[in-house]
Amino acid sequence: MSNQPNILIIDDEPQICKLLQIALTSNQYKVIECNTAQDGIVKAANYLPDLILLDLGLPDKNGQDVLIEFRTWYHHPIIILSVQKDEENIVKALDNGATDYLVKPFRTGELLARIRSALRNSSQENKEPIINYNTLQIDLINRIVRKENEILKLTTTEYALLVLLIKNEGKVLTHQYLLKEIWGNTFVNETQYLRVFIAQLRKKIEDNPNTPNYIITESGVGYRFIGN
Amino acid sequence: MEKLSGNKRSIQHQFIVSSIIIVVVASISYSLTNFIGYRSVALILLFTVSILATLLDIFPLIYTALLSALIWDYFFIPPKFTFHVESTEDILLLLMYFVIAFVNAILINRIRKAEKESNEKREKEKTIKLYNTLLNSLSHELRTPIATIVGATDALQEQTINLSNEDKTTLVSEISLAALRLNQQVENLLNIQRLEAGFLQLHKDWCDVRELVYHVIQKIEVKNSKHTFNVQISEALPYFKLDYGIMEQVIYNILLNAIIYTKPSIITIKVSKFDFDKIDVAAPDNIPVELVIVIKDEGDGFPENEIDKVFNKFYRLQNTKTGGTGLGLSIVKGFIEAHNGTIKLKNSVAGGAEFTIVIPAETTYINALKNE
Asked: Are B178 and B315 found together in one domain?
């Protein structure tokens, strides 16, 4: 057995499967394919893949239910591929435990980047104490953030928000999740707080806060931290 | 079911109203019998029935005709207060009254039915015409990119054609462009469908309009880097309660239109807040004010006589060569109206097109949080 990550594709469209197979194998991933939810669950249990690509529109079972079922025992990344692009569905899938969500049609490059980031996150749960991204340096032990070697003055909330985003690098965090984690359960609908702190954080860490490179907006869904 | 019971109720209503009208007319006539004689009363009642025939359904109408005849017989034809009729002349009159009232009622009812049918037919023809416009525009808009894809893949697969690497790259990027264009059209059609079917549900949430505008510009810039964007947003702009995704689509469609139809130049986006009292102090939370977005380009503007039509479905300016189903701006209008807002288009003094969007929305200032 080689060390190449195993990826399980669960999608009932032969064309998409073929495309994914070519894109993934040519990038050194090992691919297992299946076309139904039932088959997918069996194969996942047998092969224990490192990542699952799951289509929400499967013929035999509602995709969200499949996702919930997987999450009772499967703890590796699950990336959703779906034609449904409404925010409600995306948020629901993320709440149900999806690691990421890509809307069809997606660019292959984008998919590969999301797969890499999901695998990286799941493999190294414990990050280095000091993280570097381009001009940005985060010292988790001393709770210091530097930009171009200058120490940034972050408030407690700003720092907590930044660390939460960084710990989930590459992953979309929904508004509700961020609000719950930083401000607590009673604040899940107070998105204006989040807007304020994201705007402030961007002003401090981004080169140009209007065209952010680190904290990316996912319209109507949440935010995603992109390291490199 | 609901419709059925509603119909029943309206028919019941008709029975009651027509009874009241006949009784009222009969009472007035009764008080006048000394002046006009009981035979003229028949004409007055007939006249009333004829007028009611234009409004009532068939069963209430027959009932009305019958009721009026009986009232005339009972209260007016001597001997009064009996249904008995003495003179042959009166019997003849009563019979004729019956026949005329019924024939009149039925004929008028038929005419109304025929009219309704012809109206429906006209509506249907209009729909068919609209549908044809849609099909023509659609088949063109969908087939062109499909033709590109099929043609390009054929060329790539054909062993006998010797393609240079450069040619291959061009063909592949053409396929990619065509696919994106197809996707955009599907997106438009789905949006129009959502608007038409009334499926559109807004998910309003606090929006940083500055973030929204720049986010759209980033998306547009991926497609086209030849236009420059001049964004004017005050630092003090509050957050507005809007549907982020929908508003993004609105700005996107307008900007996309601008970059497709104008030569590389500056597109200005100005966002401001309009207070009704015009006092620019921090308003208390949740006071509705208006969000004003002005988007201006430096193109040739729209022909003045066509400005009113640009928001119509499937409408495309005369003599435009670039593709489009003419859905983009009508979606914009639909989305803004879903927010109870308005959009206006005019040609600016400098010549370009100027869209002004005004949306009433809740706002919030939470600058006090800054040092938390």
From this structure: no
